[in-house]
Amino acid sequence: MVDIPTNERGAMLEAFEKTSPDGLTTIKFEAGTKVTDSDNVPYKQFSVKINQNPAQSADGPTIVGPTVEFLPLYANINPPMSYTFNYADFQSQIDQVANAELKMGFILSTGNWATYTDFQVDTANKVVTIDIDKFETVALLAQPPKEIVRATEGPQNGVDITIESLSDLSAGGAASLVAKTLPGARVMIWMVNPSTGTRSAYPADRYRDADADGLVSWEWTVSARTAVGEGHMELYVTTSTDPTVLGAFNSDLLDKVFPDRAAEIVKFKKGEIELLELDEHTTLRMFPVTYK
Q1: Rounded Cα gap, residues 173 and 192, in angstroms
Q2: Which of 115, 143, 171 finishes a domain?
Q3: Domain shared by 114 and 193, yes or no
Q4: What is the pLDDT of residue 180?
Q5: Which residue range is the domain that position 118 belongs to?
Q6: CB environment 194-223: b (16+ within 10 A), e (fewer)
Q7: Which pLDDT value is given to residue 181?
Q8: Is the pLDDT of residue 217 over 90?
């Protein structure tokens, strides 16, 4: 337990810096920092718990080194504290993940991991640094890169879709998207929340047909309960005129008409595949998005 010397308004009287005995983690607070609850009442103490051997999920990211739990959970930190982790001793864990991407992550209330959007990885010194504005359970994660699965050999075999413009995304804010594909193509959109990994109910009108220039657009209001962080957007596009395919497309049941691709469709919906061509007419694209 760490006692926080503060003034009458709950602000730290002086800067605070602490490195763990093993030298792996360092936290820094500026003088004047407040650690408060949801009602803005200052805390006088906080604690840090380090789990040296966290359980690894069979289908989740690889946890590199220990998890670090800051308590009380979800306390607000203003200005944010600096957290540094030296992962040099855990390079072997990273090497087990082919072409690993390193991200700082935190545990959701569901027990799943989510990732922060702003952090710095110094690969030369094997150090990652992040500013954290809320006490959570954090860790360095090693994730495999997103897959690209094409229908046949060679690039750009099927119909594709690209982003022309995407507005800033924030809880309760207005959002807009313009995408480009082939004229007349049917497009479906799903926004996936960073907090839960579940699909958002917005935009409610999911389907658009591209105009003569191949453009398709949406405007919607982001749910006020959407958390800050990295989510993603799913765009499905098809030029098929087959009623069975179109019916499955409109019902989000493409696995029924492409049963041999069902496992890949599941991986796509989990955010593990960036581009999935089901055939020359139908493509699924995933785009990372950031909620601020």
Answers
A1: 16
A2: 143
A3: no
A4: 95
A5: 2-143
A6: bbbbeebebbeebebebeeebebebebebe
A7: 94
A8: yes
Boundary of a domain, candidates 127, 143, 159: 143
Tens digit of each residue's pLDDT (9 = 90 or more) over 122-148: 999 999 999 999 999 999 999 877 665
**Residues 113 and 141 sit within 8 Å (Cβ to Cβ):** yes
For residue 185, what is the domain's CATH number? Answer: 2.20.130.20
DSSP for 165-220 reads EE--B-TT-EEEEEEE-STT-EEEEEEE-TTTSPBPS-SS--EEE--TTSEEEEEE
Total domains in the fold of the chain: 2
Question: Does the bond joining 21 to the residue before it have cis omega, within 30 degrees of 0?
Answer: no
Q: Say if residue 109 is in the same domain as residue 122.
A: yes
DSSP per-residue codes, 89-105:
GGHHHHHTSTTPEEEEE
**Pair (88, 69) in one structural domain:** yes
Q: What are phi and psi of 262, to 5 degrees?
A: -60, -40
Tokens 């800050």 locate to 228
Instruction: Provide the CATH number for the domain around residue 75.
Output: 2.60.220.30
pTM above 0.70, yes or no: no
Pairing of strands 273-277, 147-149: parallel
